[in-house]
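Database export, one record per block. Field names are fixed; values are copied verbatim from the stored entry.
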Amino acid sequence: MERVSASIIIPTFNRHATLGRSVLSAREQTVQDIEIIVVLDGASPQCRDVAKRHAAEDERVSVLDLPKAPGRGHENCDKAVISARSDKILYCDDDDLLLPNHVQVLGAMLDVADVAETRVASLGRLGDLHLTPCPTGNPRVRQLLANGKCKFLFDTHFGHTTQAYEAFSSWRVGNDQNGAPVREFLSRFASSQDCRWVSRDDITAISLHGAARKDMTAEQRSAEIDAWYGIIRSSGEFEGEVRKANSTNHLYRLLQVDPPLGASFDDYLSDRGAYTDVFKDKNAQGLFRLMNMKPIPADDAGELAGILLQPLLGAYSFTFSSLMKRVYGPDAAAQIMKKAALYPAGQLAGPLTAYAQLQAGRGRREEAILAISDALEIGPDPKGDIAKLKEHIAQTNPLKGLWTRVFRKAGKPS
């Protein structure tokens, strides 16, 4: 069997609208001596057609056509790793994009390590990039992953050697039992003290988060990934998007699971090996102050709310609104949340949903219902925050008819 410098595994089930661009981004690497294994996990006929078309166009693409495996199908990923013709194994989700230097960068890192990661860049629902604040290879952050407390890393931005796969972790071991197979897969690498882990600040891939885009049509998903495929092929345009990116969302999660405990902003970030740009980020500094119960100007707090409460991260609306209420008091916090929806990044359902939650918690159900009506008009709610509020108010609000009228007006089912 002829060996190659790297093997890229792309598992797929039913995302035919994005699969083609993902495979094409793998084909267009600066390192040509690679193989691309498209794993059809009981995949739809449309996915099979896309995969076979790429295999016909490029002999480096092979198709592993398998019946649906249990759970999320990671037993079939294991089959791909076993069949790979390289000692360096990389991954790409079927709705993610690899930059042209992905194999070049990760491949070189795996020459001196068991596992390697590049900085995660994930695409928000409003088209902005969210970056991780620090590498998982940092000992403190690595321990958080090992303990199951925090996972910043996605498999698309990660690679391992075949020796490490057999020694430290595999897709065969209990990955589908708790519904978090990727986290379990990565956490076993992180838990193994003998596993040599290296990280780099380079951005070599973009994650487009299918789970947060379930409400999007195939046409919308195809248009989105097509647009970003063009952006990453234009170095100047992509660099501009990176300059606008922020690490606030991921830093918020880190601060939640690993509190500052009196540390200064710079010391906290230094201990976790944070990337240079995070130290200079005004929003990161403001968030750090808020988490330490110190208020910042209302406009800055509103900007933070506009970033943190985007639809992609709607689950933060409850925890962040509670934090704002503790720092500013309920009235000021409610107004900050309401204004956050109109910031330049704006037209966000998340801040208005958080505002509605604050009002509902204070018994102001009419104001809460009207805010939710506005949120429904603004955008999607993939995390289900509006549905949770709806259930809460429906159970306690005597004006249930008003709720129905508001939803009917917004053109949504009540």
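Remark 1: The CA atoms of residues 302 and 340 lie 5 Å apart.
Remark 2: The first helix runs from residue 16 to 27.
End of record.
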